[in-house]
Write a structure and sequence with these properties.
Keywords: Cell membrane, Membrane, Transmembrane, Transmembrane helix, Transport. Residues 60-248 form the ABC transmembrane type-1 domain. InterPro entries: Bact_Polyamine_Transport, MetI-like, MetI-like_sf. It is a multi-pass membrane protein. The chain is built from 11 helices and no strands. It has helices at residues 2-28, 45-52, 54-87, 93-101, 108-121, 128-152, 156-164, 169-198, 201-206, 213-220, 227-259. α7 (156-164) packs antiparallel against α8. By secondary structure, it is mostly helical. The protein starts with a helix and ends in a 9-residue tail after the last helix. It is globular, with a radius of gyration of 22 Å.
Length: 268
């Protein structure tokens, strides 16, 4: 009885969580402009309308630039932080790492408003660059978490052996450590890219007049005729997110297998 109740709860939870996402492609291919059953017919015109929209293409380009830049910055900074936290002992390490991971628990609206006040206070104009800075701050804790796991699973004697054979510290890191944690680096970049691409609140506060995909979608919800096109766009974004997370999970598991670490679960 207890097992049946838990199973029913799990099914209802998954339906509540994923049913709206499953409805996206259904209404994206619906020929009617009203999001309701029964469906009018099957069409792909909303996808064509989506690609013909100049503002949407601009928002897509902005989001790709922001996501790629934020992912690269967050992964590089996360690489340094994870390396320092797992390899070296220094005073204040706990508080420093706690501050780095703080955006994980802070409400994004607080982060967005705080960044807006600070940037305007120092005279920095709102642009794509300010969104990149905000997204880097948000994505970095995820990159640090992934890379810390990758570094902590390594055998320190490998690096020491390379130095005993005559390699410098930099060459030992570049030739021995970096290839072993490369799956974690790729996984951190893909995760950061996905988070940045889907992030709305910070982009809403910091983008200024530059549209991003989430802010463009929000602006179009006021117009009922645009809803089917937004459904088509949402379908593409969900498919892209699933692919990126699948690739990130593949590289995470590859890194676990390469280092011999026990797999404690991942994104999927």
């Amino acid at each position: 009885m207890k097992g049946g109740g838990l199973r029913a709860y799990a099914i209802l939870y998954l339906l509540f969580l994923y049913a709206p996402i499953l409805l996206l492609p259904i209404f994206a291919f619906n020929s009617g402009t009203i999001v309701a059953f029964p469906l009018k017919g099957i069409t792909t015109q909303w996808f064509g309308q989506m690609w013909e929209n100049a503002t949407l293409r601009r928002a897509l380009l902005n989001s790709l630039v922001i996501a790629l830049s934020s992912a690269a910055l967050a992964t590089c900074l996360g690489l340094f932080a994870a390396r320092a936290s797992t390899r070296f002992a220094f005073s204040g390490k706990g508080p420093v790492m706690g501050l780095i991971m703080l955006p994980l628990v802070l409400p994004e609206i607080i982060v967005g408003v705080s960044l807006l006040v600070v940037l305007l206070g120092v005279g920095v104009p709102l642009s794509i660059l300010t969104v990149i800075l905000g997204h880097t701050l948000v994505c970095m804790p995820y990159a640090v978490a992934i890379l810390t796991t990758a570094f902590s699973s390594l055998d320190r004697s490998l690096e020491e052996a390379a130095q005993d054979l005559g390699e410098t510290k930099w060459n030992a890191f570049r030739l021995v450590i970096l290839p072993l944690v490369m799956p974690g680096i790729i996984s951190a970049m893909l995760m950061s890219f996905t988070i940045s691409l889907d992030e709305f609140i910070i982009a809403f506060f910091l983008a200024g007049n530059e549209p991003t995909l989430p802010t463009y979608i929000f602006s179009q919800l006021r117009f009922p005729k645009s809803i089917p096109m937004i459904m088509a766009l949402g379908t593409v974004l969900v498919a892209m997110s699933i692919v990126l997370l699948t690739v990130a999970e593949y590289f995470r598991r590859r890194g676990v297998a390469r280092t011999g670490q026990k797999d404690s679960g991942g994104f999927l």
